[in-house]
């Protein structure tokens, strides 16, 4: 599964990759709060405060091509 985190105000992409809670390796990013802390909890584009309540988190299943 993949995960995207966008600013809730301007939509800037803050994180895109493997779903954070399911990562089995490279635990450099332990949770969504760590992603926001990397930006000092402020959106670099619009200056809005970032928290788990103000960002848009989208988790999608991967599409398996050729599966019927």
The count of domains is 1
**Mean of pLDDT:** 88
Structural class by sheet pairing and helices: mainly beta
Low-confidence regions:
none
CATH architecture: Roll
Bulk shape: globular
Short account of what is shown:
The chain has 68 residues and is mainly beta.
How does this structure look, described?
The protein is built from 1 helix and 3 strands; from the N terminus they run E-E-H-E. It has one domain (about 1-60): SH3 type barrels, CATH 2.30.30. By secondary structure, the chain is mostly beta strands. It starts with a strand and ends in an 8-residue tail after the last strand. The mean pLDDT is about 90. The longest helix is centred in the middle third of the chain and has 7 residues, at about 30-40. About 10% of the residues lie in helices and about 25% in strands. A 3-stranded antiparallel β-sheet has the order 2-1-3, with helices on one face. The chain has one helix at about 30-40, and strands at about 1-5, 15-20, 55-60.
Please specify the SSE layout and strand pairing:
Layout: E1 2-7, E2 13-18, H1 32-38, E3 55-60
Antiparallel strand pairs: 1-2, 1-3
Notable traits:
single chain, 68 residues, mainly beta, SH3 type barrels, 1 helix, 3 strands
